[in-house]
Design goal:
The chain is α/β, with parallel strands linked by helices and 501 residues long. β5, α8 and β6 form a beta-alpha-beta unit. It starts with a strand and ends with a helix.
């Protein structure tokens, strides 16, 4: 299978080339030339598979220059029991008396966030892709994070031969636990830098570095090439498709759904990669009824699905769900390309308007096509806090603020629509990563102010009955190794300093 650019670049690329490059030469994002289909025989076969086997099977449909044996080897290592426990991505029925609601727990990996599912696998794909394409240069993974991608990428690429990884995160834009996870990271090839600004500033800076041809030529002359661990990289997005396929297969396996019965997927959404993976799963043949795109107060996506205008010219809010504090949702470009029948000229014009004017409007046909499948909504911090307590009281499950955004939007959707379809909620992070916000929700706003984060984590464990993950428990004892804070205008100079001295 070949990969093409959303902005119409005339060349085609293998899956290995798409993963190695990260972004197309014209600045567009790579998408598969066609979307592979799952047959009834495939669905039956997958019901006998463990997650790592199913993941390799789904990936083999997209990454056709990798053998299924190679992919099995990579997924077996990436999702090993010592990293994830017995089941990497368990599908949990929320209440034994309610056959409608299920939660896909995506946070059992090394850094307690859904990004681990892809970022434990991406280093295997990246190094194999480099060999397949004959790339001998050092690979520098350059990424911006709103909290979770950074640590998951650092953990995946730490001390991996032939790589350097540089992570930029916004000052004050991540939780204390997220920050500590990043700045205490070990490894000789890891670099973590705070940027004064918001996530969009960091992400724009990274995109500008990727788009600077002179800088790319300088790095190339010094035997270095850039790639990304953000979901703009197809090697990061593709593994996420597998867990949505898995959620449907699990419903079948548990006898909770019929073979052709459709179901909803609820995804807390910032950069649009996670929900886009669910869209790709639907295009492969998984019977998805509605994709519920849940936003926090930075509701640029909610407004877009409502009226067809994407406008980042608005106030930016720092919320209790910081991984979603984003105003430029990069992966939306892929969906627009697909939903318009691969009209790269339209996409290119919209992206140009977003870059120059900060906004664009899609045509009525495109908006109608989007609204047939996607439901948008947003929740403020008060609503999120109430939802955490409501879900705990109703189901005895403690959820983090991001997952709570999804529950909040779904609750209102269900009430007004009467849609009784089975529903899978993507649970994207362990509640321990956001202990102050979670404990304020359970005990009352302001409760966290008199306690340290460590004390709150201990109380949360006692309240929820959940075991504190080792990567969270050890944070107070780890040395802070990464202390740099820079302005957004200094990002390229910082990359040059790290890579070239």
């Amino acid at each position: 299978m070949n990969y093409i650019s959303t902005r119409g670049y005339e060349g085609k690329f293998s899956s290995s080339e798409a993963i190695s490059r990260g972004i197309a030469p014209d600045g567009g994002l790579f998408v598969p030339e066609s979307i592979p289909q799952l047959t009834q025989e495939d669905l039956e076969a997958m019901q006998t598979m463990e997650f790592y086997q199913l993941s390799a099977f789904v990936l083999s449909k997209f990454l056709t220059d990798f053998t299924e044996e190679e992919l099995l080897d990579y997924t077996r290592q990436a999702y090993a029991e010592e990293k994830w426990g017995e089941n990497p991505v368990p599908l949990v029925q929320l209440n034994e008396y309610n056959d409608r609601e299920f939660m896909l727990e995506l946070w059992h990996g090394p850094t307690c966030a859904f990004k681990d599912v892809a970022l434990q696998l991406l280093p295997h794909l990246m190094t194999a892709a480099a060999k397949k394409t004959g790339l001998t240069k050092k690979i520098c993974i350059l990424t911006a994070t709103s909290g979770d991608t950074g640590k998951a990428a650092l953990e995946g690429f730490k001390d991996l031969p032939g790589t350097e990884i540089i992570v930029f995160y916004p000052t004050g834009g991540v939780s204390e636990a997220q920050k500590l996870q990043m700045v205490t990271t070990g490894g000789d090839n890891t670099h973590v830098i705070a940027v004064n600004g918001c996530f969009d500033d960091a992400q724009t800076g990274v995109k500008n570095i990727f788009g600077n041809k002179e800088f790319a030529e300088l790095l190339d002359a010094n035997g270095i090439t850039l790639s990304s661990a953000n979901s703009i990289n197809w090697g990061r997005l593709a593994p996420q498709i597998a867990y949505y396929v898995y959620s449907y297969v699990e419903l079948l396996r548990k006898g909770k759904i019929e073979l052709t019965e459709s179901f909803n997927i609820v995804v807390p959404t910032g950069n649009f990669g996670n929900i886009l993976a669910a869209w790709f799963a639907k295009q492969m043949g998984i019977p998805v009824h509605r994709l519920i795109c849940a936003s926090n107060r930075n509701k640029v996506l909610c407004d877009f699905f409502s009226g067809g205008v994407y406008d980042r010219n608005r106030e930016f809010y720092k919320t209790t769900s910081p991984s979603m504090d984003i105003l430029i949702s990069s992966n939306l470009e892929r969906l627009l390309f697909e939903i318009t029948g691969k009209d790269s000229e339209k996409v290119k014009e919209w992206m140009k308007e977003l870059n120059t004017e900060g906004k664009y409007s899609v045509d009525k046909d495109t908006l109608k096509a989007l609204q047939r499948l996607f439901v948008g909504g947003f929740a403020d911090e008060t609503g999120v806090s109430k939802t955490i307590l409501e879900v705990y009281d109703r189901t005895d499950n403690v959820i983090d603020p991001h997952t709570a955004v999804g529950f909040n939007i779904y609750g209102r959707y269900h009430q007004r629509s009467g849609d009784e379809s089975k529903t899978v909620f993507a649970s994207t992070a362990a509640p321990f990563k956001f202990a102050p916000a979670v404990m304020d929700s359970l005990r009352g706003i302001g409760y966290s102010e008199a306690l340290s984060t460590s004390e709150l984590i201990t109380e949360l464990a006692e309240e929820s009955g959940l075991m504190i993950p080792q990567s969270i428990a050890e944070l107070p004892t780890l040395e802070v190794r990464h202390k740099d804070v820079i302005e957004k205008e200094q990002m390229q100079d910082k990359v040059r300093e790290i890579l070239l001295g």
